[in-house]
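Possible regression after last week's pipeline update?

I re-ran a chain I had predicted before the update to compare outputs. Posting the input and the new output here so someone can diff against the archived version. Not blocking, just want to make sure nothing changed silently.
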Amino acid sequence: MTRFPNGKRFAFSVFDDTDGSTVENVLSVYRLLSDLAIKTTKSVWPLPNVTGAKTGGATLAEPKYLDFVLWLQSEGFEIGLHNVRNHDALRQIVQLGLDRFFDRIGMHPTTHCNHDSNRENLYWGSSRFRTPFIRLGYNLTAQMTHNHSFEGDIEQSPYFWGDLCRERIQYVRNFVFDEINLDRINATLPYHDCRTPFVNYWFSSTDGATVKSF
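New output (post-update):
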């Protein structure tokens, strides 16, 4: 028995991280996808960029980009969340960003993906791993390359927003693999993990950041 609608053998989609996106550099791609009736997910930042952040890009605070995103939505593309902005955000900023997303898009985001090293990322860094030995190895490596604390799922932290994620967002991306057929990695996608209660369901992705990796 197939798991896909109408007896299909596979499904294909894209979750497009919004890093570096502008109307000028992505519009032609989405016009082509729309012409081909391939309706994918475009993530957004609801709040303006923070100057000096590692990565920038257009946001829903810019009228031209908002019009583009609303066009995507009208064409049947899903609009997802890539954190509320391109830099760390305290709980009250996250809540503002989620409210702004709802105001602009007319619904809460169904999908979310943590952005880079934002401090409010959920279950990020070593918290992604369940094996103590792997966690230790990750922490030792991370200390040599960067020093980030991820606190979106820590209730005592001013960066905590796990309850808001659970209330408003259905799916969160976790691991990304060098494998185009994710059934070979985990045939139960999406999945819930009782050890990460602030995420309703996790999903995995194929690494497609560049043509070479894809």
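Follow-up from reviewer: compared with the archived run. The first helix runs from residue 23 to 35. Marking as no regression found.
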